[in-house]
Design goal:
- 2 copies of one chain form a homodimer.
- Chain A has 11 helices and 9 strands.
- By secondary structure, chain A is an alpha/beta fold.
- In chain A, strands 3-2-1-9-8-7-6-5-4 form a 9-stranded parallel sheet.
- Chain A is globular.
- The termini of chain A are close together.
């Protein structure tokens, strides 16, 4: 097991952790707490436009670990699927303009009961946007979601599945994003992380508390749950990933607290548990 | 894909679907609706005692597809784990007295963050109760639970894991229970069901609706969700299972409806969707 961190150099604040703040407020809060990285969400980027968002992030001195999120490829009709492809191309443009090299893909649910067909639509969607991503030096990070989101957010639900899918494409363009909340339960977790070597484009942390405080908003602060964070972090590093570590916590209780309190807790828990 | 059923011969009512009824009330309701099978829960059995429960079920003419539930093997101390083993032996006695040959195992959560150690405790627990089960002609059915229950109900969370665990023991004594709610999302679902041939001891149905109405009470009536019920039923039959099919639905809205309405809906949906 690796040693605890002694600095916050790799800590990135995924902005949904401070969901009530604008992009500008969030960037300022990150700077106040000495962070070096952040990861914006597109809804907050769109509020003020990509240009202004890019300027704020550049002026802040923060580096951008990823953009959340592209994906949602399946659709009931060819026209819908094309709309999704077009939206992913816009997300790629935005990611490039914001100065990150990684677009996180939440792959989307099936439009009907046929989950296997939807999985094929995801593969086809990634293939369709890949040239655009390559042209803009953006890598696509397939994030397997927890199986409890299989019906409404992502038909890609295990590390094995995400790796198999990524391996259909060049490693320089397509990889996976490892989020502990989604994958901690997997009996093959460490085998699959080992297999993911060279394909890990991002690492997201939070915790799984009992009882779960929600479904979409079910994540907790590191240390408040059962996830073996340091063990998983060690395995991710052993697989060759040494990039930014995003704290991504959707949690109503945290959202209702002052941002500075949340960031103070986040930076402490990062050293204690990750 | 197999044909729809034309009778309810294989339909079994898992009594938690009518959670507000006593064992006697539930048995009477099953008989009123022409069912041939039921599956009691231990809490309802204990309310009136095993002898009286067995008498009611025998007099009703219903067959007992399984007893819910044994398991919950892990514990923080050896004494706790022994308590759990003793309780499983009592559950085996009860199953035998109630006239079923199958005890469903919900394997239990880890007592701490070490999920791998807890998985070993489950294996050890099954090994410890196996001779008692064999002596009473009870087969132990390992039910993999949905990964969203990994922290509080079962460290056994995939078909693959349940099959691997079952295969450490003789097929005549230990198998798996396939519940669609827990396994429908699995990218390897049909491969694993094929591999489970000869080990399937029970088949449970419900549905996964969007949005999910809860976590523990997250199940819905067949047809109200996204699960490919007939396709999974076909695969389970192809794997050699032709026994009773338990409807097991924890759902607050269904629980608040009159039992006869729920059973009328259950029997209709069984023909339409399973």
């Amino acid at each position: 097991m690796n040693q605890p961190f002694t600095s916050h150099d790799r800590l990135s604040l995924n902005q949904i952790t401070l969901n009530r703040l604008t992009l500008k407020e969030c960037a300022e809060a990150c700077v106040r707490h000495g962070l070096k990285w952040t990861a914006p969400w597109r809804n907050r980027v769109h509020e003020i436009g990509v240009k202004e968002s890019a300027r704020i992030l550049r002026d802040s001195g923060l580096r951008v670990s990823s953009l959340c999120r592209g994906g949602f490829f399946p659709g009931a009709t060819a026209a819908e699927r094309q709309d999704h492809i077009d939206d992913n191309k816009r997300a790629i443009d935005e990611a490039a303009e914001l100065g990150t090299d990684c677009l996180v893909l939440v792959c989307g649910p099936a439009p009907d009961r046929d989950i296997d067909a939807a999985r094929k639509m995801v593969e086809d969607g990634i293939a369709a946007v890949l040239p655009h991503a390559r042209d803009h030096n953006i890598r696509l990070g397939i994030e397997p979601l927890h199986p409890m989101f299989a019906a409404d957010r992502s038909v890609i639900v295990t590390l094995a599945e995400a790796i198999d899918l990524a391996e259909k494409f060049p490693a320089s363009n397509v990889g996976i994003v490892v989020d502990v909340f989604h994958i901690w339960w997997d009996p093959k977790l460490y085998l699959e992380l080992h297999r993911a070597a060279g394909r890990i484009l991002g690492f997201h942390i939070s915790d799984w508390a009992v009882p779960l405080p929600g479904i979409v908003t079910g994540r907790s602060m590191m240390g408040d749950g059962v996830i073996e964070l340091r063990r998983i972090r060690t395995a991710v590093e052993d697989a060759g990933y040494h990039g930014p570590i995003e704290v991504e916590i959707m949690n109503e209780s945290l959202w209702s607290q002052p941002a500075d309190d949340v960031l103070a807790l986040t930076t402490r828990r990062y050293l204690d548990f990750v």
